[in-house]
Protein 1
Amino acid sequence: MTALFDDRPFREASHRNGFSGNRIARWSEGRDDSSLERALAAPSSRLYLFAGDKVVLRQQDAIPSSVGHIAPSDAALLEAMGADADSVGGRLLPLWTLAEAADQGLDPDTVVLLGVRAGEAVLAGTVPPREERPPHETAIDLRSLAVQEALPPDDMGALAQARSLLLWHAANRFCARCGGPMRMKNGGSSRVCTVCNTEVFPRVDPVVIMLAVDGDRCLMGRQPQFDAGRYSALAGFLEPGETIEDAVRREIKEESGITVGRVRYHSSQVWPFPSSLMIGCHAEALSTEVVRDAAELEDCRWFEREEVAQMLAGTHPEGLTVPPRMAIAWTLIDAFAGREG
Amino acid sequence: MTALFDDRPFREASHRNGFSGNRIARWSEGRDDSSLERALAAPSSRLYLFAGDKVVLRQQDAIPSSVGHIAPSDAALLEAMGADADSVGGRLLPLWTLAEAADQGLDPDTVVLLGVRAGEAVLAGTVPPREERPPHETAIDLRSLAVQEALPPDDMGALAQARSLLLWHAANRFCARCGGPMRMKNGGSSRVCTVCNTEVFPRVDPVVIMLAVDGDRCLMGRQPQFDAGRYSALAGFLEPGETIEDAVRREIKEESGITVGRVRYHSSQVWPFPSSLMIGCHAEALSTEVVRDAAELEDCRWFEREEVAQMLAGTHPEGLTVPPRMAIAWTLIDAFAGREG
């Protein structure tokens, strides 16, 4: 008899991927419209704030706190990503009290209840973007925060949930069935039409992302908008009427001309841009000749395991790279390379 | 070195699940608005037709055909499901020519291009429901067709794609961002707002469905609307900000109070009611005391492997059952039971 679960220590592959640390209890079933009001009346409630596409953060130097941790000191890189130079190098704090959120100009119509964490209600909302910010305050986009691993995993997971929800509510002001105005329900867990009563729930788009493997080689491509020298796993949206495995085979075929057979699920990732579920797989190549989809990819080719290891280590002689560690593509590529030896 | 893929014959678990046989090449990238027109002008094009919630079918007795195959003769069961008694027992044909579709009253505004199969364009559209149908014509809902395994897998896969797409277009007549009217684009692969140009793509909702396992026992529940004696795997929609594994743990905890640790992906299923991707997993239970969510489940308990085998075989002394073979729940339960011996 084969056991469904072996005795290996529990080290989940999906936990290696960015945004996987969410510890909020959503409590979706027990909610009603008063849940948000009650959370907004509780002094212990805390909010994540977005100004346009950026997370609003405080920087707190050398002050011990149970919230946040020491950010990487790579100030130049963060600055290049659009953050103020004086905002980095310290402890970044992403949570705000209700009073502080009001001072930031919180738009009350945007506020959603994410859930409960450590006994406190956790909410999210949007504030107006600001040209200038006081010292010790900054705003950084979520992807840069993830690349920098600048916040603890539980904050990154909560911010991912927050970003997807805020964008979904903003994009669903009207009923797609009748055109009537919709209102938020149960603190943001759904929206309901004020005319025809149609109820809709937050959308999550499944995306397959996969590394085709041919023995000691894997298939990677580069999109024109990638950083110079960057290659990654192929990916695409799963379409209605497809299993995960069928979507993997179709996407690889469409983008590279490669036929694949067996597909093996590896791990999944929350991808809040705006609201995808990345489903990461390895796929067994049954053909080898690449016929690239020129509309999607600037290049697509096989990479030997040794070359992949150099790309992961940042030691490739021509400076070729793979996505940053927070990306599921990195995890898939690393898992392939790690099979060596 | 451990190989990513072993040498076992390629027998994909997802292919055991209903609706997994779709062979249509979607050709989504290469389409434009003229693709549908051209498909509607080609005499070789074929359509799947839905009348309300039912698939319109011809019955062709004992006439050999490359389309369709012999349906099961369980006329009583099909009749109980709402099909006419005289519609069963023969070969069911789900495809119609353009002229036949016009005779059925095809609504041209609903027609979508599914893709290409064996060199022929495959489309789908809706026709008005009819109280009476001529002999050798019937209409049966898609779930009953799946339970009966009454059509070949490629038709069932195509019908699943068709049903999800037709319902999505019907539910998205207006722009959720601005309330303006939307129009179909590229033969149905997206919709675009005639006012603000927002483009939206067909929605697929990821759902986790999972069997918690505690050694030789698995956890199943029954919803009030299930057939008498029916138990199944627990399931629920994945929410924004969750990995697959996190969603599995949350849903099991919410519905049964059971804490689970390791989660193992098993297979996936297309579920066109209206447009879900069922993601099937086994999960390792870390606790045993069931605290049922009474709002969701009428019962929830552990089942010994032997009892599960009886339920699968239809020999349970109290008549308890599991879902039909086309359901991914069956595949998950069967995989658990099959670990014996």
Protein 2
Amino acid sequence: MAFTYHRRIHFSDTDAAGVVFFANVCSMCHEAYEASLIASGISLREFFNNSSCAIPIVESQSKFFYPLRCGDRVQISLTPQLISLTEFSIVYHLALMAEGAEADSSQPKRAAWVLTRHVAIEPTQRRRCPVPSNVLEWIDQWGEGPSEALTDENY
Amino acid sequence: MAFTYHRRIHFSDTDAAGVVFFANVCSMCHEAYEASLIASGISLREFFNNSSCAIPIVESQSKFFYPLRCGDRVQISLTPQLISLTEFSIVYHLALMAEGAEADSSQPKRAAWVLTRHVAIEPTQRRRCPVPSNVLEWIDQWGEGPSEALTDENY
Amino acid sequence: MAFTYHRRIHFSDTDAAGVVFFANVCSMCHEAYEASLIASGISLREFFNNSSCAIPIVESQSKFFYPLRCGDRVQISLTPQLISLTEFSIVYHLALMAEGAEADSSQPKRAAWVLTRHVAIEPTQRRRCPVPSNVLEWIDQWGEGPSEALTDENY
Amino acid sequence: MAFTYHRRIHFSDTDAAGVVFFANVCSMCHEAYEASLIASGISLREFFNNSSCAIPIVESQSKFFYPLRCGDRVQISLTPQLISLTEFSIVYHLALMAEGAEADSSQPKRAAWVLTRHVAIEPTQRRRCPVPSNVLEWIDQWGEGPSEALTDENY
């Protein structure tokens, strides 16, 4: 059910150590997030300019297992999960995909793991508001779902 | 014969004016350059770590005609041209592609024009060297070709 | 009279070739532009959110003379020039500064040259409008000035 | 004892929501890390090209409390801590500094918190190696120190 995004590592993603700069792994995950929203029929322009509800990232975590280099083919699997009526998280798994002669025999190599946490807010007052219905549908489409009925004490 | 690259505008490409930050247009063109090298069978890892010949960009020019926003679908057409035995240029045309109901009736909208000039050098001495043969083949494949036989007085 | 900005090369500016990625040179010049606006008492937040006049970059040119590496100390000299009542350009010279034992005896090394061209527009209609008065004062303060009285046939 | 780094928010740090893109907060923290190394007499060029010991980031965490906008003045306080003979972490606190008339009366506003974890490895084999002595001195200079004698079972 996870959304899958494929991406080459660009030269501009790398640093003088020859591998992807750590912060750019987070940018790549945000690209996958945007692609999954488009795949659910959400207009990015409306999503990121919504005057009644903004959904900023309030937390992120990353673990880096294997260095990625220019030209590497990466698969990003993305799974959103609703945390409360006003909040959701996304888990991303990045895998380095084998190519050419190795493509058949090799397994993808675990490269990184990223988590982002997102809170829906009403922009002028910066107070929590419910996650909009089209975003709930996006979570339903690609996510695992909560294990039980949600209540939101923060809301 | 030009190489064509398709790309969504990512949120990280934009700035607080709501449109793509001007320098990021150049980064996008470099992505198209990398994709064209891969399409010609060139390994990016070997290309950018070639100890006998590096090909730095020595000049770039950009013109911006129309602002690009997050989620926009862009087509980049790339045409390399050999300038001398040690030097080539690439011209990029960026067009904003219509979507949905407008896709059939609308023409792509000219968004930007970029030129980069690249010089082949031997890395340790930083002196000019001939453009490698696999890069000449890449120019042949996607380029317009020089209008006459080349001589290189700089070489 | 030029405005001068000093800047270390950050690790995130570099790419897998070990030197600053070409597009990032343009980003650095924009930082110098922002610093010069602040030095003239202009609020960046108001400048980049001005609802009656936006000043997008419509063209840029760059020449790269010497590669810059992580930790290098760079001086950017910036000179704006009014082109017409609705338009100005900025020229940037980037120099690599010597350090430590070499600081006294060595001359700065020319690293790059950049030009940007900016057009004042009224944002909703995207039609040209006069360069605002506080920006004219900024041009007076750091610029060379036009060699003769301006007329603007485009306006 | 923490190292302190001051930085303006650049236009290129922001995104179309008008605030700093979340991943760019991590890049800013890495700038502070580089500045602290220079302040301890460490050459960045040698540090990031050390053929006997590389120190990649293996994990990062970020919390975002307050949005940062173009032109904002930010203070980053950095505190390294040795975790084992082969590993250290850095904690960064980002605060938005008041300016002008508010500078005297206003407290800095907590904007973000970032943690990075770094492991020393021997680059060819990618096996753990001891944190180099000049990096231990840097930790001593800016850090809080471990609360007890270190042993390293991983080493």
